[in-house]
Each structure stands twice: as C-alpha cells, then as structure tokens.
Amino acid sequence: MKVSVAIITKNAAVELDRCLASAAFADEVVVLDQHSTDETEAVCARHGAHLHQSEWLGFGPTKQKAVALCRNDWVLSLDSDEEVTPELRAAIEALPEAPAQAAFAINRLSRFLGKWIRHCGWHPEHVVRLFDRQRAGFNDKPVHEAVETEGVVGRLPGLLKHYTYETMEQYVSKLNRYTTLAAEQMHAEGRTVKLWQAVIRAEATFWRMFLLKGGILDGWTGAVLCWSSGFYVLAKYVKLWRMGKP
Fold it and tell me: Best exposed site among 11, 48, 187, 231 by fewest CB in 10 Å?
C-alpha cells in the first residue's frame, strides 16, 4: 500500500529532522509550513520532502489542507515532534493494498520534562492518524482536532513517540496559545462559564489525572504534569469567562 505522510510545522527544524527520518519508508512526504524562519527548508530538502507554504488556518483546517496536497489516498498524519517507531513502520508496511478499514488508530507515547509518561491519562492514547482520505479526514476544529471517519477504525501495533514538552518553557508557551484557541472556540459556540466553575474544573482535572488515571505512578514528573494540566484547564475557562464579560 502506498502511503503519503502529511506534516504541518513552524520553526521546529530539529524535531522535524527526527520526524522525517522516521518517515523515510513513505511513498511521499508532504510538509505544510507556516513560513518558518529556521532550517525547515534545508531539513525538508535533505529528506526529499515536498515543502509547501500556508497561512495558519487552525489545527484541523491546516492539517486537512496538508492532506489535500498528498497524491495517495492513504495518508499518515504526523506532527513535527512525533517519531514513527520501527514496530509501527513494520505494521504499516504489512498492510494490504486496499484495507477494509477506513482508518487506523495508533498508540502514542508522550514525553514530559524528559520522561516518558505511561499514566496520567496520557498513555495508552490511541489516536487516528492513518486513514483513507476518501473515507476520512480532519474536522475543522482550530484546536483539539480529530480525524472523522466513514467506516471501521482498526488499530495498529507499535508506538508513535511524541516528544511533547522537554521543558516548562515549551509547555507554558503552548499552553497560552492552545488555551486561547480553545476559549475562542467555546465562546464562538455560545458557551459560558462562571469563575468558580473554572476553579472546580481545574481541581477536578488534577485529581482525576493524579489518582484515577494513575499519575502518581509517574513520580514527581507525573505530579508536575497533573498540576500543569489543571492550570491548563483553569487558564482555558478563565479566558472563556473573561470573553463573556461585558
């Protein structure tokens, strides 16, 4: 089965280099860049990836635009900070020419502050990333986008490694951006929240991740992740609360 890889990126040349190296098995690699100022162009050229430029449209629409640039029906969507493991590559290469499934979910393992997180609700995390674009595609959500399918979704063995947040600086930077996008989306949908509800939601997020999802088993790194995730929720809903004030 011929597979195209679709990646969106901006100023992530180091991570993109690792991602492209792991995707070398693909029939085609398409990178949709948002006008990076780092070595993204050189990295793409070194790996033979097709580089395109686009304005930022939100995660869902931008990823779907990258999918539309691919020549094959079967597309593997990757983030620039992800890496295909050898086991996952072998599973993809073993697929028949025309699978009955419309898409496949892949188990993703993510890092936080230099540690692979195996609890906290972060793992196992099966995300739909390989799909037949005639029967599936990304929705138009600007954040927390997902692949929507018309048909059966299978699962593939192997892991997709996600080098999420190696530093708190990375986490805080993305937190500010993502919470704003999420609050704007909820505001556009007519949702509102009271300030006390924002606090309760944040507190509940910590305890759900730390106790119910086993974050305590990830040690102090897991504790930091659970608290940080609680603050993410707090920031998102406080921003929504502010948008609803006259």
Answer: 48
